[in-house]
Amino acid sequence: MTHYDLAVIGSGSGNTLISPEWADRKVVLVDGGTFGGTCLNVGCIPTKMYVYPAQLAAAAGESSRLGVDLTLDRVRWSDIRDRIFTRIDAISSGGRAYRADELENVTLIEEYVRLTGETSFETASGDLVTADQVVIAAGSRAVLPEIPGISLPQVHTSDTVMRLQDRPRRLLIVGGGYIAAEFAHVFGSFGTDVTIAVRSGGMLRQLDETVSEAFTEHAARQWDLRLDTDVTGITANDDGSVTVRLSGPAGAVDLEVDAVLMAVGRTPNTDRLGASDAGLDLHDDGRLAVDEYQRVLRDGRPVEGLWSLGDVSSAHQLKHVANHEAKIVAHNLLHPEALRASDHRFVPSAVFSHPQAASVGMTEEEALLHAEASGTTIVTAVQHYGSTAYGWAMEDTQGFAKIIAERSTGRILGAHILGHEASMIIQPLIQAMSFGLDARSMARGQYWIHPALTEVVENALLNLALD
Ligand SMILES: Cc1cc2nc3c(=O)[nH]c(=O)nc-3n(C[C@H](O)[C@H](O)[C@H](O)COP(=O)(O)OP(=O)(O)OC[C@H]3O[C@@H](n4cnc5c(N)ncnc54)[C@H](O)[C@@H]3O)c2cc1C
Ligand SMILES: NC(=O)c1ccc[n+]([C@@H]2O[C@H](COP(=O)([O-])OP(=O)(O)OC[C@H]3O[C@@H](n4cnc5c(N)ncnc54)[C@H](O)[C@@H]3O)[C@@H](O)[C@H]2O)c1
User: Fold this and answer.
1) How many Cβ atoms from other residues are within 10 Å of residue 427's Cβ?
2) How far apart are CA 347 and CA 321, in angstroms?
3) What per-residue confidence (pLDDT) applies to 190?
4) pLDDT (mean) for 47-61
5) Is the minimum distance from the CB of 264 to ligand 2 under 6 angstroms?
6) CA 177 to ligand 2 centroid distance, Å
7) Superfamily classification of domain 2-141+267-334
8) Which residues is 356 bridged to in the sheet?
9) Nearest atom of ligand 2 to the alpha carbon of 316
10) pLDDT band of 188, cuts 50, 70, 90
11) Could you report the per-residue pLDDT of 262-297, keeping only the tens digit for each?
12) How many angstroms separate the CA atoms of 67 and 413, rounded?
């Protein structure tokens, strides 16, 4: 048995906790997977490194209506893949070497572990570790539904699809969320025939309904979108392809593809950690229950010396949320007398698809419930990119910004943008909501650069029918 001052389980966002303040204490960092976790190795970073070249490839199909005839000669999949992972793998191995070899006070255990108590765990090879303080930052993993054929090598998750030897000619994506939308854009723009099977009646259904409906329409124009459709089985064919049995509005249909990407959500890694056996409180979706200081709960009360952050305990499976929670835990570990609370009031997110979707705050549906509960009235404005000068320049026909505010105070409750660079255009609204700037002050109290695309936000704010 070895005892440490601090043990961190998970080298994703957990890795950032080992700051110089711990230099004179014994620390252990544990990770059974690839050093650096999801975002770096198989998540945000490589996906966006694919999305950018996908945007370039897509431009060829879109520019002729502006009078610029581009042709796409070729997409060199293996060159793109190798460029991305040469860069990423070096960052992962450099980070690993720093923790494993360069810091005398830090031990790196490269094994999966299971909790044996509140602040103790056992490694896969049987070593027992105890610590004064333990941080669980064990993330989440892709869900694989129990379907016949799910273990075939042609069936992928986001963990493996980016490293394929060759770009598939035909790809079925199962799911209608973030990962489905982003990979449909990547593979579709590169020339793959993309089919998407969505169990429900639309894509990105967790977003505001106006955005979800518009995105679903754009998706149906770009890809072979099958709504209200389940996958019931996958069988291998002699030529290396697979036949997928789909069950949808037209009954059972067989689809032949070269690869399948399962994108049906991610589950927190609490089961593999044995969190329930250790008596820790879990939400219905399997994530650890924590209080506002990121302390793990047992029977509703914080466990002394046990903390958690990121996907394993967060309602938001987003890297910027994991990073925020890591900063809170980093402070609280060192300042038990002055704990800081995490702030989940205005968590934004963006889907880097085609078009992009970005969102912060309440959907219209949530705002209506809020209005009913608080006795207030809400107002909504939808401003199309095509109504601004920059939108004319782009000949844009799809983009819009939707803003929801409280009528009497102008308090911005939610903002939802679909279209070119939505992930950037939304940032001033995130800032306004975070710092309590009301819609009227935000619209009138500053210059808006003309004719930048941000005028779509300015005009949406001005069009809110406030008191
Ligand atoms: C394809 C994809 C694209 C994404 N794109 C974005 C994006 O654009 N923007 C965004 O904000 N978010 C994005 N995300 C989500 C983001 O990647 C995650 O929210 C974030 O990485 C979670 O960080 P974490 O530190 O909680 O967990 P992780 O980074 O997953 O780290 C957890 C680590 O714990 C290790 N581990 C797990 N169990 C054990 C155990 N029992 N013992 C030892 N080690 C263990 C794992 O091996 C892993 O390395 C994306 C996710 C995916 C899959
Ligand atoms: N840009 C980003 O920030 C980004 C990008 C990718 C992933 N992520 C994070 O990763 C998480 C996981 O992404 P995701 O796309 O896998 O999940 P998701 O929750 O966004 O979407 C899952 C989809 O699968 C469907 N589904 C669920 N179970 C199913 C089943 N058994 N059969 C068929 N369909 C089923 C759901 O209805 C939904 O359409 C996201 O929630 C997000 O937090 C973020």
Assistant:
1) 15
2) 7
3) 98
4) 97
5) yes
6) 4
7) FAD/NAD(P)-binding domain (3.50.50.60)
8) none
9) 43
10) very high
11) 999 999 999 999 999 999 999 999 999 999 999 999
12) 40
248 lines ligand 2 (CB under 6 A): no
Please compute Rg for the chain using Cα positions.
Answer: 24
- Alpha carbon distance 265, 269 (integer Å): 13
Range list for CATH 3.50.50.60 in the chain: 2-141+267-334, 155-264
Residue nearest (by alpha carbon) to ligand 1 atom 48? 37
Task: Give residue 198's pLDDT band: very low, low, confident or very high (50, 70, 90).
Answer: very high
Measured from the CB, is residue 319 less than 6 Å from ligand 1? yes
Q: Which of 50, 160, 178 to mutate to test the pocket of ligand 2 (most atoms within 8 A of CB)?
A: 178
Please work out whether the CB of residue 109 comes within 6 Å of at least one atom of ligand 1. no
- pLDDT at residue 21, as a whole number: 96
Token pair 């009528």 is found at 407
**Where are the domain boundaries for CATH 3.30.390.30 in the chain?**
355-462
Gap between the Cα atoms of 253 and 244, Å rounded: 8
- Closest Cα partner for 177 from 163, 158, 190, 156? 158
- The two structure tokens encoding residue 403: 């803003």
Angle between helices 178-190 and 44-62 (to 10 degrees): 50
177 lines ligand 2 (CB under 6 A): yes
Alpha-carbon distances, residue 260 vs 153, 175, 183, 396, 443 (angstroms): 9, 11, 11, 33, 46
Residue 416 appears among annotated catalytic residues = no
**Residue 227: predicted pLDDT:** 98
Any known ligand binding at 425? no
Ligand of minimum distance to the alpha carbon of 325 = 1
Confirm whether residue 179 is marked as ligand binding. Answer: yes
100 known ligand binder: no
Cβ-contact 6, 119 below 8 angstroms: no
Phi, psi torsion values for 294, nearest 5 degrees: 70, 25
Q: Could you give the ipTM of this predicted complex?
A: 0.98
Exactly one of 3, 335, 344, 450 is catalytic; name it.
450
> What's the pLDDT band for 180 if we cut at 50, 70, 90?
very high
Tokens read off for 54: 């996908």
Mean pLDDT of the chain: 98
> Could you tell me which CATH class the domain 355-462 is placed in?
alpha beta
Q: CATH number of 155-264: 3.40.630.30, 3.50.50.60, 3.30.70.360, 3.90.220.20?
A: 3.50.50.60
